[in-house]
Amino acid sequence: MVQIFTTxxxxxxxxxxxxxxxxxxxxxxxxxxxxVTDKGVIGAGLAKPVEESLKAAxxxxxxxxxxxxxxxxxxxxxxxxxxxxxxxxxxxxLGGGSPIDIAKTTAIMLTNEGPIGKYFGVNLVPRPGIPTVxxxxxAGTGSEVTPIAILSDEGEKLKKGVVxxxxxxxxGFLDPELTLxxxxxxxxxxxxxxxxxxxxxxxxxNANGMTDMFCLRAMGLIYENLRTxxxxxxxxxxxxxxxxxxxxxxxxxxxxxxxxxxxxxxxxGAEFHIPHGIANTLMxxxxxxxxVLGNLPKFAGIAKPFGIPTAGMDDLHIVDRVVEAIDRLxxxxxxxxxxxxxxxxxxxxxxxxxxxxxxxRLLANNPRxxxxxxxxxxxxxxx
Length: 383
Description:
It contains 16 helices and nine strands. By secondary structure, it is an alpha/beta fold.
């Protein structure tokens, strides 16, 4: 089977690495950039080290801070308008997955004819965008190393993806110092999101030896450090490990794909505005229990990076221990566990299940074939 492995070509990691951002951009011969971010990042003071690095390198910049959580695709047009007005030559995506995804899609819309809606799908973007450099401020999405951007379509109440190699950033800067003040609930949600990326890519039908290598290390780093990062946010070693884990998970799922957990998360996220990492966590144990028959040895393999003793146990019992460990982790970091906590009722399930079945891009990666009745049963189990 032919396999292709790609990732962001340049990754700069480590505490204090953001200080070299300006020189990175300067060395590319670029003198004008647009920082794409949100008001929360600005309010937390996280743009300051980025701006200081750009000023030190004598790079002119403007700031677009209009990104919202789970951004509507209409935000792209607003960002494009500002980028054109400022004659931007490079975009810096600063924040969680939302600003990074808006930066990605803005970059391609500056060189391709709109609207963005015509590019929802796989390999539909004809030309590369302007260069982008991504600076994540959470250890979660891994979007700095993926060819994917997720935007909300409020009309259809779905999250939709643009998937194209043209979305890969030119570089990613991962400075864990930018995550030291991340609030515990955000640490929990984004950390679980990263863990789920690794689990799903590891169990995807497209997984291979290379993606398994990244995913197994990612699972180990995240499982071992998420509790500490949650409990004591200024623990730099834990934050560093979390950022590396999220990065490696991103590399894994960029190449192997995520599966049905994300397919279930998209409708509930779009309809009930549940944060993405929490939506994934709500669905994870129930989807694992359904999917396990599709590749039992692979799901049992998750026990190793989790450090779960398995001597004398068969694979089915090992998977039970894996699910128990995930449940305990979610409880320890106080991630909600039931759909009903967000006002979802049994009457909502048929509509949500139909939404799942529309996410064919992800269901194609799933280790077990899923029907509409299966989707309803899984949502019901998660109530």
